């Protein structure tokens, strides 16, 4: 007799089979790209630190204990205290919020600017393509850190300005990637069919071409997020951008560098390690995304 779909035993059996299927998918992704899985694990760890920092921090990250200045790591202060008597462990955990709080908006802004420009420039071609690409090339001519330093110093040292500058400076990367894909797609049969059917230009670009041209840009998201985290920390280290006592890793490393020569290594080493691990994880994740989205890379490996 065929089992009834409404039979509670059938529902229990189906529910019991669901977790193994999900587990098999996760294992399959890990086998497909071990580097991507390792990077994802690191990023998930930092994401959990950022989300639950209020629970994980043993002390207020900006509270100053004047009687505990530059204390080495101990049971009370796991990563020691800095030159202001602030708990380094709590500040490192809270700093993960600024890592994601800068990387995610900056990359989203780059995508919002770069992808439409790449679509329009690649599809239209001609003078419009030349003007748009030459403007974006101009943004890439100067070293990014020098240009970011100049713009942030001129516009003001705020989180919003840092995100705005990083998003603008990195948008040419996405524009170039999308434009290259559009150039190869605009003569495709499905595009010609969409034009012959009388579709407006915006529909051809965003409905027919974009879904086929976006994979390369998506594969760059994690790598460019790593770039944004690194550049924002560099700006803070150089004294431009987010400033102390805000618990941002670059600013913490800058303060720690002053005490390194006198032996208080913990002030700069722990935020520096967190920065390295987050950038490393994002780069690994970006490499994994490229493996997943590009079969030729998988075949080469």
Automatic annotation (TrEMBL):
Residues 96-286 form the ABC transmembrane type-1 domain. The lineage of its organism: Bacteria, Pseudomonadati, Pseudomonadota, Alphaproteobacteria, Rhodobacterales. It is a multi-pass membrane protein. The keyword Protein transport applies. Gene3D superfamilies: MetI-like. Belongs to the binding-protein-dependent transport system permease family. PANTHER family: D,D-DIPEPTIDE TRANSPORT SYSTEM PERMEASE PROTEIN DDPC-RELATED, OLIGOPEPTIDE TRANSPORT SYSTEM PERMEASE PROTEIN APPC. The keyword Cell membrane applies. GO terms for biological process: peptide transport; protein transport; transmembrane transport. It is found in: Cell membrane. It holds the Pfam family BPD_transp_1. The chain crosses the membrane at residues 37-58, 98-121, 141-169, 227-245, 265-286. It comes from Salipiger mucosus DSM 16094. GO terms for cellular component: plasma membrane. Keywords: Cell membrane, Membrane, Peptide transport, Protein transport, Transmembrane, Transmembrane helix, Transport. This is Oligopeptide/dipeptide ABC transporter, permease protein.
């Amino acid at each position: 007799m065929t089992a009834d779909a409404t039979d509670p035993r059938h529902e229990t059996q189906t529910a019991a089979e669901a977790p193994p299927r999900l587990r098999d998918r996760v294992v399959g992704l890990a086998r497909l790209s071990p580097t991507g899985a390792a990077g994802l694990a690191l990023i998930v760890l930092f994401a959990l630190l950022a989300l639950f920092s209020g629970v994980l921090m043993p002390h207020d990250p900006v509270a100053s204990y004047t009687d505990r200045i530059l204390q080495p790591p101990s049971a009370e202060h796991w990563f020691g205290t800095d030159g202001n008597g602030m708990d380094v462990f709590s500040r490192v955990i809270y700093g993960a919020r600024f890592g994601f709080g800068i990387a995610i908006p900056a990359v989203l802004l780059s995508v919002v600017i770069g992808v439409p420009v790449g679509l329009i420039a690649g599809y239209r071609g001609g003078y419009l393509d030349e003007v748009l690409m030459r403007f974006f090339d101009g943004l890439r001519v100067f070293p990014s850190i020098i240009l970011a330093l100049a713009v942030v110093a001129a516009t003001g040292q705020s989180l919003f300005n840092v995100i705005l500058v990083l998003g603008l400076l990195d948008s040419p990367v996405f524009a170039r990637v999308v434009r290259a894909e559009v150039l190869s797609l605009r003569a495709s049969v499905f595009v010609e069919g969409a034009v012959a059917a009388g579709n407006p230009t915006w529909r051809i670009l965003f409905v027919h071409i974009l879904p086929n041209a976006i994979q390369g840009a998506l594969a760059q998201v994690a790598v460019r997020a790593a770039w944004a985290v690194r550049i924002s920390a560099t700006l803070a280290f150089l004294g431009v951008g987010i400033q102390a006592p805000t618990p941002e890793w670059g600013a913490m490393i800058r303060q720690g560098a002053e005490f390194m020569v006198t032996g208080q290594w913990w002030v700069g080493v722990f935020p520096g390690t967190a920065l390295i691990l987050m950038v490393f994880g994002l780069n690994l994740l970006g490499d994994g995304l490229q493996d997943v989205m590009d079969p030729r890379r998988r075949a080469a490996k």
